[in-house]
Design goal:
single chain, 751 residues, alpha/beta, Transferase(Phosphotransferase), domain 1, Rossmann fold, 4 domains, 26 strands
């Protein structure tokens, strides 16, 4: 919980406000105490939304829905005023964490906990459906854990099944990854069976710590939900069949909430007409697990029990706050300074307030800085010094992974940038001087926004190159955008970066969805493949999906037979995967994933003397693939937006300058970063002294062009996407245990 802010009232409608449980774009949820001492979760809607007649009507419906709920496993409505200037409702406060928080902090639930969770949520849904309602947003964040069982919360998008206009065609309502296929398509009317599907997703998450359809971009999640089998590896044997039944694509094949509850409690349904054979099959397995869910022993592991007890005690111990009050009809902005001093934030966790799915909270921590004199040592804050003179000083920032999993790439980027700045500062008569400032996020998305803020805070920084990875770029993009600081990405390839509506982002490489066109040209042209096996590695998340689904679509249009296979993130034995590919007639294999698991597949292919082509994209262009795969790596082909500046003739001068300054050969992505830095410098020079600002530089970069060593640069003025001209994607092969550079990758099928 967060302390109250100075803009928050101390009292609302007779309830004392003790702190903030969460906030969203439409309102705030407070922890409140009644006159009798009862703790409540009090949701207040902002006045501007309350003025919208349609929004107020939806809020009235939420209140009425909550009033109809009497199940002990639904957070009960205590009080509400949907007609107030700022509408509000109060529900019983549950001091426990959400299921999402609990699994993230303490891991999957034990079997007994899963059975209690399933039985009681099924009972809650049974009552909701009996009342003619559907919840439509059953997810881990809407399940709170209490000592006596779970509580289902948030009926903000629940609807009456008989209500006309229940959904709009093409509109997806709910949380991707936990909504049913009929909602994912945006065409079907969500019904009770949809809630059962969502409950199956929740149970799979609680059992494994992973959503059954993975994570990643919205499009990837919706596609997997509609087309892919769920990833149920790790679900206990006694529950796996039941969860699989909940996750049937066809709503008519799913059990009802009533049948689910009966299965979990091992008692027949109240109306047992034609019960499903699948339910009868799993009932003995479920009954054979630990003690039944109706027993008296704790259903949660001890760490969670202690957490709930601590939060309960902390809530009861919170002091009262004097003395600003908001009446039942108006919630004004008066407050008291003592609110900010509340100690509750030290103990209580947060409960998320999300009226609609899709909001993401990122906690930013850490973020080290690098020094010019210690490129290969621990790093601290650095702004590359330039001799003092009368020239203006501008800084180019580098946001990179300098100490984490991709530190080799981060180091290459740093050296490419520093070489460009060194060359500029060495020229006589330069109109300004340049400096370099680096920040290290360690490859951790949670650290990425904090690292971005350090560059933003330095007003001399006019442009930033980076970050190194998809995840860190996605985590910090909004931070850079809010500061109008141009961010030029050299190595991230996620398509999601281009659809976030950033005004200051420039994507200086082709996206991952473009690379399959080069894979197709290699497979059909160079390798002469007739049937392509495609392995979509769930461990690679959105990256794997973008490569595999795009390639499958390309081959479908040729047409050329393809055998797609999705592999669970937990699977380390690729034997069954290869069996399926061979059974489908695959004479070549494309791996859509990263280096460590590509090595597993490579060894399996090598063990079976697979004679066909083996290909991948830049996720496998990593020295660790070579060491892990050994002899099995030979023969692989990889397409990647990386030039080998040590052998490419066009990079000869760059290579010599790099060796002179650093005493080392340039590593992959050094020359690409050098190109981007040169483009930024050229564009900065084109601006007048008074025009060298962050927004002006963004506009000029998007409108400009530059012929670099590794690729040519021109951008879509509206989106910042790279204009594709055939340059910048290269072919690598593995020969005698080493990556061998082959030059530009083929973009068309050779005849």
């Amino acid at each position: 919980m967060e302390p109250l802010r100075t803009s928050d009232p101390a009292k609302l409608a007779g309830y004392r406000l003790l702190g903030r449980l969460g906030a969203g774009g439409m309102g705030v949820v407070y922890l409140a105490r009644s006159a009798g001492g009862t703790l409540l979760a009090l949701k207040v809607i902002q006045a501007e939304y309350a003025e919208d007649a349609g929004f107020r009507e939806r809020f009235r419906r939420e209140v009425e829905t909550a009033r109809r709920m009497t199940s002990p496993w639904v957070a009960s409505l205590v009080d509400a005023d949907p007609e107030a200037a700022q509408p509000w409702l109060a529900t019983a406060f549950v001091p426990g964490p959400s299921l999402g928080e609990a699994v993230a902090e303490h891991g999957p639930l034990p079997v007994r906990g899963l059975r209690v969770l399933g039985e009681r949520l099924a009972e809650a849904l049974q009552e909701i459906h009996a009342a003619g309602l559907v919840h439509r947003d059953v997810k881990p964040g809407n399940v709170l854990l209490a000592l006596d069982g779970p509580r289902l919360i948030d009926f903000g998008i629940a609807r009456d099944t008989e209500e006309p206009g229940l959904t709009s065609t093409g509109v997806v309502v709910g949380t991707p990854g936990f909504l049913p296929p009929e909602q994912a398509r945006g065409t079907g009317i969500p019904g009770a069976a949809g809630d059962v599907f969502s409950l199956g997703c929740v149970l799979a998450f609680a059992a494994t710590g992973r959503p059954p359809f993975g994570t990643g971009s919205l499009d990837a999640l919706l596609y997997r939900t509609v087309h892919d089998a769920p990833d149920l590896d790790g679900v206990p044997a006694g529950l796996a069949r039941l969860v699989a039944d909940c996750l049937e694509k066809d709503p008519g094949l799913r059990p009802t909430a009533e049948e689910l509850k009966a299965t979990f409690t091992d008692t027949p349904p109240a109306s047992p007409a034609d019960p499903r054979e699948a339910l009868r099959a799993v009932r003995p397995e479920v009954a054979g697990d630990e003690a039944g869910p109706t027993g008296e022993e704790a259903w949660l592991p001890q760490p969670l029990v202690r957490l709930i007890a601590e939060r309960s005690a902390a809530g009861l111990a919170l002091p009262a706050i004097d003395d600003t009050e908001v009446g039942p009809g108006v919630a004004d902005t008066a407050s008291t300074d003592t609110a900010a001093a509340s100690p509750a934030g030290r103990v209580l966790g947060r409960r998320r307030f999300l009226l609609l799915a899709g909001a993401t909270a990122v906690v930013a921590v850490g973020g080290g800085l690098a020094t010019w004199s210690a490129l290969d040592r621990d790093r601290s804050e650095d702004s590359d010094a330039t001799p003092a003179d009368s020239n203006p000083l501008y800084t180019l920032g580098l946001h990179a992974d300098l100490t984490g999993d991709q530190k080799d790439v981060g180091r290459a980027q740093e050296r490419g940038l520093r070489l460009a700045v060194h060359e500029f500062n060495s020229r006589a008569g330069a109109p300004f001087s340049l400096a370099v400032k680096t920040v290290d996020d360690g490859g951790d998305p949670a650290r990425s926004p904090a690292a971005a803020k350090k560059l933003i805070a330095d007003r001399s920084v006019l442009a930033v190159i980076g970050p190194t990875t998809d995840a860190t770029a996605l985590a910090s993009l909004a931070t850079y955008d809010a500061a109008s600081l141009p961010l030029i990405a050299v190595t991230p390839g996620a398509t999601a970066l281009q659809v976030m509506g950033s005004r200051s982002f420039l994507h200086a490489r082709v996206t991952d969805t473009i690379l399959p066109f080069y894979l197709d040209a290699y497979l059909r042209g160079t390798a002469k493949s007739r049937t392509v096996g495609i392995v979509d590695d769930r461990a690679a998340d959105a990256y794997g999906w973008e490569i595999s689904s795009t390639l499958a679509n390309i081959l479908r249009k040729v047409p050329l037979p393809a055998v797609p296979k999705v592999v669970s993130a937990l699977r380390t034995d690729f034997g069954p995967t290869l069996d399926a590919l061979l059974a489908g007639g695959a004479d070549s294999v494309v791996f859509a994933g990263h280096h460590e698991r590509a090595a597993l597949l490579a060894r399996e292919l090598h063990r079976r003397d697979f004679p066909g082509a083996r290909a991948a994209a830049q996720g496998v262009l990593d020295a660790r693939f070579l060491s892990a795969a050994g002899d099995a790596a030979d023969g692989w082909a990889i397409v990647a937006p990386a030039m080998d500046a040590t052998v490419a003739p066009e990079a000869k001068a760059f290579r010599a300058a790099h060796r002179e300054l650093f005493g080392a050969e340039p590593e992959r992505y050094a020359v690409e970063t050098y190109d981007v830095a040169q483009f930024a410098v050229k564009t900065l020079r084109s601006l007048g002294v008074g025009s060298r600002t962050r927004p002006n530089l963004t506009t000029a970069l998007r409108a400009g062009s530059y012929q670099g060593i590794a690729r040519n640069f021109a951008f879509d003025k509206a989106t910042g996407a790279l204009v594709i001209d055939g340059s910048g994607v290269y072919l690598w092969t593995v020969e005698s245990g080493r990556f061998a550079y082959q030059g530009l990758a083929p973009s068309q099928v050779s005849t």
